[in-house]
Amino acid sequence: MAAQSKSRAGELRLWRNARLATMAESSAGSGVVEHGAIAVRNGRIIYAGPEADMPAALSKGAEATDCEGRWITPGLIDCHTHLVHAGNRANEFEMRLAGATYEEVAKAGGGIVSSVTALRAASEDELVAQSLPRLDALIAEGVTTVEIKSGYGLDLENEKKSLRASRRLGGERPVTVRTTFLGAHALPPEAKGDKDAFIDLVANEILPAVAADGLADAVDGFCEGIAFWPEQIARVFDAAKAAGLPVKLHADQLSNLHGAELAARYGALSADHLEYTDEAGAAAMAKAGTMATILPGAYYFIRETKKPPITLFRQHGVRMAVATDNNPGTSPLTSLLLTMNMAATLFGLTVDECLAGVTREAARALGLLGQTGTLEAGKSADLAIWNVERPAELVYRMGFNPLHARIWRGQ
Predict the structure, then answer these.
(1) What secondary structure letter does DSSP report for 35?
(2) What φ, ψ does residue 94 adopt, rounded to 5°?
(3) Please, which pLDDT band fits residue 100 given cuts at 50, 70 and 90?
(4) pTM for this model (two decimals)
(5) How far apart are CA 271 and CA 234, in angstroms?
(6) Which is more confidently placed, 95 or 215?
(7) What is the dihedral of CA 238, 115, 359, 214, to 10 degrees?
(8) Helix, strand or coil for residue 407?
(9) Rounded (10°) CA dihedral 370, 371, 375, 377
């Protein structure tokens, strides 16, 4: 399969002789089409399905690529990352190996606050330069859309710097970037322990300024005893609602503060982590249509033992996304393929759940399902072409990348 050249505006492109995992909701399982084709014009899919059923007009004059029986999935989507950060926290990794807990690391001056110090000391250009290799690692595995959170600035100047750097990554590489404002991530040193005053600052000053500058696509918070209480997060979510921004939530990771129910009450796009979520939380998420974003990298890295309630999510019909949670302290993971393997081996997700979790459901968790995440007419032509015999290999293999080609918006 020859390398693709950039097509001219309006030019018809065709990928044929392929096996498709469309991930369409109307199809069973992964929506497999054994002898498939995809036609694209102006960066949009205009046909995806059996090659024998494709309108003849679509094959006339098209720039055609013979996929030689390879599998095509939607481009992968990493829907929860903290990709823009400065430095690393390998020293904390050593502390954990010696037996320190997440809370003990934070109380010793580590944790999120140490990343705040590093990000504040870095320029915007330095943040972009340090973050590009992480983004490149994801792109090399077929990722076409990535969400990037702020939350290591914790003041107006540095939160905006982080979000601008995130936006710039989308200009530096052929990838769709969605930015999330995570001002309520941790308490900065200058707050001197006053959580309520800091939440007032986030809700009344920083969030409105970020929204006015158009730097965020959503708002997130960390609802946990070492971070912020549900009533404090609610004040941030009220401000997000006033600014017209959807919300997401780091919920129930280390304890059950009923963060899943809080997220559901605000109609959140997703609640993420969820190791300690109970049945009431799962039921509330299902009723609200709030996604569960499963983050096995953090569970593995901090050696958690309480698994998210996957069975409850299935029973209540809560949809599940899967993401790397790339961050310097608790999940320095830049492989969505390995993340799928972790979700299967650690939490028991099926192959179909894993594949949907990094495509269709990840798009839903970002509010982007109308634009990407499945191989269907009208969607962005974001494709990943794989050298595999069956899609299960994408979940089964560890440390092996079978990507053959990656297509973003038809290019």
Answers:
(1) E
(2) -65, -40
(3) confident
(4) 0.95
(5) 14
(6) 215
(7) 50
(8) strand
(9) 80
